[in-house]
Amino acid sequence: MDDSQPTILIVDDAPENLAVLSELLQSEYRVRAATSGERALKVIKTPPKPDLILLDVMMPGMNGYTLFDRLRVDPETADIPVIFVTAMDSTEAEIQALDVGAVDYIVKPIVPPILRARVHTQLELKRARDWLKNQNSYLEAELQRRMSEVLAIQDVGIHALAHLAEIRDPETGNHLRRTQGYVRALAEELSTHPRFKDFLTPHNIEFLVKSAPLHDIGKVGIPDHILLKPGKLTPEEWEIMKTHTRLGRDAIEQAERDVDRQIEFLAMAKEIAHYHHERWDGTGYPEGLAGDQIPIAARLMALADVFDALISQRVYKQPLLFDEAYRIIVAGRGSHFDPDVVDAFIARFPEFCTIATRYGDLEEKAACKPLAGANGSILT
């Protein structure tokens, strides 16, 4: 038997009908037979799987329609085309068979040329469907592979740009990873909140996390004598330092112009870079926005950035303990930070501590342990 031959399963309770159909088809196809619906289900489970089923309608026990329903609910057999072969010569019976999903309907007694032609047609159609299915599967896999490559390159590019700012300021360490983790924790906590749920969809959360490392890209444009100054900045130096928000926005905006179209995560990155130093009460910079005027992405970044700055060592300060940073953030509820964002921070504070410890800089880890109460819980 040629393994390349299509396999046809004939299901009929009359042995003489099985003999006639087998005789007509076995010269061109591999033919298998079953004398009942129950037997057909067992035959189908053993290889070779049929490419087409010729199914009698009127059978004792499990009739053709019942067997057809069983085949359709099983993912292993749902795509096998079925031709009903029956003595019921009526338009209503044919319509019923086609309505339930049969690919064709042949009336007994069998006319050999018609049978062969219809079997051949349905097998050709199945071959075409299988080819398209295989092509689609290949194309989907190839598309996924290429998308993964593009996203990986995109992530590398983002981090390369973000690290330009960190290279200028070597004490920032794992700041990017930590702030990404904090932002994700806040976004997930707020994703069901009535004020935030429309924006903080899973899709937007991923773009928010992807965008977060670019928040301080504008620091590349700040002179070293200001950026790395170990002491307090003068009023004039502070005004220059504050321009890093505008420089970051302008750099990302230029990247958007270069590609001549808006890229979703860059639009969010631009908001974060420009507005992450705004304060809820309107006393921040660069534009003095207040309340809901401040983009949500920037509000989350503001808290994440401040918390990480508090627990991190800088040339001009030592790191704070987690509980000290916690108290400062909570004290800023409604003044520096959106009250609901602070509430999300409170709910996720243990996760903030975990992220800070996991991605802590070596010299900071000893100083950044949370204080514990008598019962071992974190003091708040």
UniProtKB/TrEMBL annotation:
CDD domains for the chain: HDc (cd00077), REC_PA4781-like (cd19920)
Family matches, as SUPFAM superfamilies: CheY-like, HD-domain/PDEase-like
Positions carrying 4-aspartylphosphate: D56
The keyword Phosphoprotein is assigned to this record: yes
InterPro entries per the UniProt record, alphabetical: CheY-like_superfamily, Cyclic_di-GMP/3'3'-cGAMP_PDE, HD/PDEase_dom, HD_GYP_dom, Sig_transdc_resp-reg_receiver
Alphabetized UniProt keyword annotations: Phosphoprotein
Gene Ontology MF annotations: phosphoric diester hydrolase activity
Domain HD-GYP: 150-361
Gene3D superfamilies: 3.40.50.2300, Hypothetical protein af1432
Limits of the Response regulatory domain: 7-123
Biological-process GO terms, alphabetical: phosphorelay signal transduction system
Xref: PROSITE patterns: HD_GYP, RESPONSE_REGULATORY
Protein's name in the database: Two-component system response regulator
